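step: validate -> pass
step: tokenize input -> pass
step: predict -> running
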Amino acid sequence: MKIRFTATAIDEVDEILSYIAQHNPSAAVKVADAIRQAVARAVARPESSPVVYGADVRAKLVGRFQYRVYYIVRGDELIIRNVRSTRRQRPWEESGA
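step: predict -> pass
step: emit ->
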């Protein structure tokens, strides 16, 4: 299965890791690794995460960290739409989303 990150998801990951790195660079490495692992688990078992929006947006928790990876499956492609803190609104709850 192929993995594709949307531009939004890439920006969100960059923002998360940059913020954490300012305060604790080693923690940023751990969070980056946890995000990679969550994506790998989603690729291995894409249907195992619950549908959280519409008919096809799924959310995978990122290890012990308070982040979720939001994705959809299209054919043989897993598309990462968003990577968000669980403290933030879901992408579809924000105005203009």
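step: describe -> The two ends are 27 Å apart (CA to CA).
step: cleanup -> pass
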